[in-house]
Prior knowledge:
2 domains; Gfo/Idh/MocA-like_OxRdtase_N; GFO_IDH_MocA-like_dom; 6-stranded parallel β-sheet; Dihydrodipicolinate Reductase, domain 2; 9 helices; about 325 residues; about 30% strand; 15 strands; alpha/beta; NAD(P)-bd_dom_sf; Rossmann fold; 9-stranded mixed β-sheet; single chain; Gfo/Idh/MocA family oxidoreductase
Amino acid sequence: MLKVGVLGAxxxxxxxxxxxxxxxxxxxxxxYDPDAIxxxxxxxxFGYTYFDNINKLIDAVDVVDIVxxxxxxxxCAKKAMEKGRHVFIEKPITNTxxxxxxxxxxxxKHGIKGQVGHVERFNPAFSAVKDKIQNPMFIETxxxxxxxxxxxxxxxxxxxxxxxxxxxxxxxxxxxKQINASGVSVISNSxxxxxxxIEFENGCVANLTASRISLKNMRxxxxxxxxxxISVDFLEKKVEVVKMKDAPETPGDFDMVLQNxxxxxKQIYFENPTISTNNAILDELETFADAINNNTTPIVxxxxxxxxxxxxxxxxxxxxxx
Length: 322
């Protein structure tokens, strides 16, 4: 079992602590939180070992799980990586692209592994259809959330939209060509609602909307590709897969057939992929353990996390020009 320590015991940090404590792939050594009062409270309430010194915790483990505010990701990861520790970093990987690039260099220099916590990659609905998403040419995403002061220290792009940016980059095999975006601050000092149009070199276009001031929660993505439409509801963990194929010469009474302007006939049919029940956070942590133990590439590598951050920052730069 890999010895693991957690940095940060806030809302998400406590979830990580619980899951790592239950995991059969990790031995939870303890955690560090700069707020000693909160650290001791969490230790007393749940029985985890509290370290009052970050370096002592890093020295005692094989893996460091960083669940701190974004602004401190880089400093925490650098401390751990320079001591040869594997790092799991909550999204976004860092606050700046330059910081992320430095972590990539440290990962290579010390021969360690890192993973970024883009948890939607482990959402069972997305997992059920990811292999069916092949060369999508138009993508539309909506990620809407009710207002919560937690997370408003960063723009909504880094808080919410980056989930969809990462998912899109994982299925579009092409470089980004152009980005146009708009963002509006309503309650926070940073933008609370944003829309981005991302054009790729291969012609694919993605239209993303993210808001943290909505009256209801929504996390939906739709992928359009040749002869197929795929919808993923990340919140409800549901999918729709609608496909088309050449219609038979003599369609059945219940076959759905469309004819285009050129006279081609297509039969519409539905697929129902199996959606497995899982705990996405536990899965991302345990697959990281597998990557370390088997010396394989983590499912969301530091490089992929860096690419998602790069695009997110380009989105922010686009609407800051307006």
